[in-house]
Amino acid sequence: MTTLDETLAALSDPTRRGVIDRLRRRPHRAGELADAFGVSPPAMSRHLRVLRASGLVEEDHQGEDARVRTYRLRHEPFTALRRWLDEVERYWSRELDAFKQHAERTRAAPGAERSRAAPGAERARAAPAAERTRGRGR
């Protein structure tokens, strides 16, 4: 799995996205995060394990008690995610610009589209009128 895949997989869970939002403000202890989301400490531990494995967060053992872990965001995975999203956005911007130009060209010259239609298209549109005419004579 690529780093981007791991990042997206980690962010697919709403609780983990909420943890990311909280950690944007400041580092938090695991217990604080569990309380904030109303989940058990083991459940939060699993969420934090996924976030650590993806590289989105890191833990810090500060203080005298090594059991107390503080979690903070890491910048690098978000930079890679932003780069990928920028590439996707550039692609869609080009596509939408091309569509806009096409729409403006066809609006400016309404007869131009008909002349570019496939051979026989005009006959196909005329066929129902001819059938209606034939039906009247009967």
Written account of the structure:
There is one protein chain. With 138 residues, this protein is mostly helical. The protein has a domain at 3-74: Arc Repressor Mutant, subunit A (Orthogonal Bundle), CATH 1.10.10.10. 71% of the residues lie in helices and 7% in strands. The chain has seven helices and three strands. The protein has helices spanning 3-11, 14-25, 30-37, 41-53, 75-108, 110-115, 121-136; strands spanning 28-29, 57-60, 70-73. Strands 1-3-2 form a three-stranded antiparallel beta sheet. Helix 1 runs antiparallel to helix 4 and helix 1 (3-11) crosses helix 5 (75-108). The chain is elongated. It starts with a helix and ends with a helix. The mean pLDDT is 82.
Draw up the topology in text.
Elements: H1 3-11, H2 14-25, E1 28-29, H3 30-37, H4 41-53, E2 57-60, E3 70-73, H5 75-108, H6 110-115, H7 121-136
Antiparallel strand pairs: 1-3, 2-3
Helix pairs in contact: 1-4, 1-5, 3-4
Would you kindly provide a brief summary of this structure?
This protein is mainly α.
At CATH level 3, the topology of the domain at 3-74 is Arc Repressor Mutant, subunit A
**CATH class assignment of the domain at 3-74:** Mainly Alpha
Characterize the main sheet. 3 strands, antiparallel
Terminal residue distance: 72 Å
The SSE string, one letter per element, is: HHEHHEEHHH
> Structural class of the secondary elements?
mainly alpha
Give the C-alpha Rg. 30 Å
Strand order, biggest sheet?
A: 1-3-2
Mean pLDDT: 82
What is the general shape? elongated
Count of individual beta strands: 3
CATH architectural arrangement of the domain at 3-74: Orthogonal Bundle
Low-pLDDT parts are none
Strand content: 5-15%
Residue share in helix: over 70%
Give the CATH H-level superfamily of the domain at 3-74. Answer: Winged helix-like DNA-binding domain superfamily/Winged helix DNA-binding domain
